[in-house]
Prior knowledge:
Elements: H1 3-20, E1 24-32, E2 35-42, E3 48-56, H2 70-84, E4 90-102, E5 105-114
Parallel strand pairs: 3-4
Antiparallel strand pairs: 1-2, 2-3, 4-5
Amino acid sequence: MEKREIGIAGENAACAFLSKKGYLIEKRNFRLNFGEIDIIAMDKTGCRVFVEVKTRKNRNYGNASEFVDYRKQNKIRNAALVYCGDESYMRFDIIEVYYTLLGGRMKIEEINHIEDAF
């Protein structure tokens, strides 16, 4: 599997996970010149949630969430402000997706949802 295919599969798994938790998926892959937001959703309380999805094979180099550095966080925050203006009721989450490859097919092993990650 190519890197982009793995990323898409991870985002699909994250969307399914959020939907099962009662989130309404508003938009995926919201792109601007300076950044992208993987998933924009509304939780059960009406809070708009901006989600960064990190898909990794293992934790050999740290948890997937550790790869959302300060610069990436700022890009997501700025893109969120463009998306919804000065809305104060928003949250930034990270979803870690861990997988294995079996016979060229991706199997999701674990999904961790870190609410209010930054």
